[in-house]
Structure prediction request, 319 residues.
Amino acid sequence: MSSVSVATSSSPWAGGQSPYATNSKKFGMWLFLISDSLTFAALLFAYTYSRVANPDWPKPFQFSPSIIFSSIMTFCLLSSSLTMVMGVHAMNHGKRKSAVGWILATMAGGAAFVVLHMSEWMNLINNEGVTPAHNPWNVPLFGATFFGLTGLHMTHVIIGLIYLTIVAQAVGRGKFKAEDVEVAGLYWHFVDLVWMFIFPLVYLMSARVGGPS
Amino acid sequence: MSAHTEGAVHEGGTTVTFLTVWIILLILTGVEVLLAYEQVPTLIMLTILVGLSIIKAALIIAYFMHMKFERLSLFLTLFPMLIFCIVLMLIFLGDATRIPVMRPPV
Prediction:
């Protein structure tokens, strides 16, 4: 048994144990996140290359409403990451009640992000006339890549909210283990991480201070 | 068996660590927004923003996603391949810079 395998070989790759010292759920989530980050990387590259290929790329984000708005969205996501990590921390110490509280706080941050992002989209669509195929600056690729990229990200946030709802419910009823909360946390931090690239590259690079340009 | 180390919870940072990381992330975001307000030239802006984003991503992965406290083999399995694949996407940059030159004059 284990004493024999330990005696013959101490290498974690010799079999009989996890070489990564993680459970399979966590490793599976990591593999998914790595492949998902390639999807987002491809979309970010598509946005950036479209911008390079179109010298008259628009700068639709006024500093005063849009950039301040998206900064608050960034703050919501970053804070929800902090509450999520606190939830995992509480769960690791067996405090189910407070873990549920932290997960609910995380969901509040995510929901605030979605609401703010939706109103940002509505402002772009209704007031600025930007749609996936048309916009007033005659650079249709802007709408296509912008809505594709931020839309996929928002989809991830919404899926994360559903995921966290299930996790919070199960943890409250004493069902899930600490590792399940940690796996959900990995997903949530990834959504936050992707926004750390979308916010500067899409919003801040197209910020407009002062009059129209 | 080492596969069942339920009781031995490896410490992955404390509340103080998480708060510190969160504050650093907020400060870096603030710097980025300030750069946008100052309207820094595009190329310098892009370089700084990508650099800061990579630092922020590394902080999130290391502390929030617990990677700093995992085995090195997990990191080596996941990340070199990811970075390599992302760098491969730079192959299309030449095409992107060529398109404006190829476009017929209006």
In short: The CA atoms of residues 4 and 10 of chain B lie 13 Å apart. Chain B is about 70% helix and 0% strand. Helices of chain B lie at 15-38, 42-64, 72-88, 93-102.
